[in-house]
Amino acid sequence: MGERRPLIAGNWKMHGLRQEGLALAAAVAGKADAYQSARGPLHLDLLVCPPATLLREVSKTLAGSIVSMGGQDCHALENGAHTGDVSASMLKDAGCSHVIVGHSERRTDHRETDDKVKAKAAAAHACDLTAIICVGETREERDRGEAMAIVGSQLVGSLPDGATAENTVIAYEPVWAIGTGLVATVEDVAEAHAEVRVGLTKISSDSDAMRILYGGSVKPGNAAGLMELEDVDGGLVGGASLEVDDFWAIAETCL
Ligand code: PGA
Predict the structure, then answer these.
(1) Catalytic amino acids?
(2) What is the pTM of this model?
(3) In the prediction, which pLDDT does 54 show?
(4) Of the candidates 130, 134, 7, which has an alpha carbon nearest to the alpha carbon of residue 70?
(5) C or N terminus of the chain, fewer CB within 10 Å?
(6) What is the fold of 7-35+67-75+85-252?
């Protein structure tokens, strides 16, 4: 962890009906409030990314809390005939401050290309949302020794002009580590994050300040070793973000 303020983001994915989602949001806010009452300001940003159906109500639940809310995806256009999609301005309107774009599940399930991810991130910026832009290699790409080249090219292809540390966060998520319980080794993560940092120097004047999250089977048991790495500025947490105690235990490793 360098000088950058850590960010722990929970990606709930397609989990959560109203009752459990609101209870989870309230529990995360409760943990943050309890910490602050006992120990003072939390030197950490916390974010939850619920499914679109819960955004407005989660936003009310989080009112007055330091926990922010993000969408899991947005369309590149502001409105139009795009059945099932949600625009960045709609996310903003529902109370989001962030949006995840280019998650590997979107890149795979919806065939999203770097160009599309870039357009989505630009749409997020235009609505004053921070874009969490995901990059990461597949197992086959890693086995072929192409991991760093793939990550570098996704980065160049997916970052829009005008990406700053304020409006952009990078998430390095090796596809083979997502939801599998297989976490990359600290050496692999350190190498990838250093590579992302160098890649950023070529495309953004803000490369030193931009946060780079690690994602892929982050759990309370492995978080401390990952979060202490120089270029790891927090985590994008899937499965473990659905259990408040696990999510909080991961957050605490950054404090
Ligand atoms: P996981 O998901 O923590 O369940 O591996 C991470 C992500 O996809 O963002």
Answers:
(1) 103, 173
(2) 0.97
(3) 98
(4) 130
(5) C
(6) TIM Barrel (3.20.20)
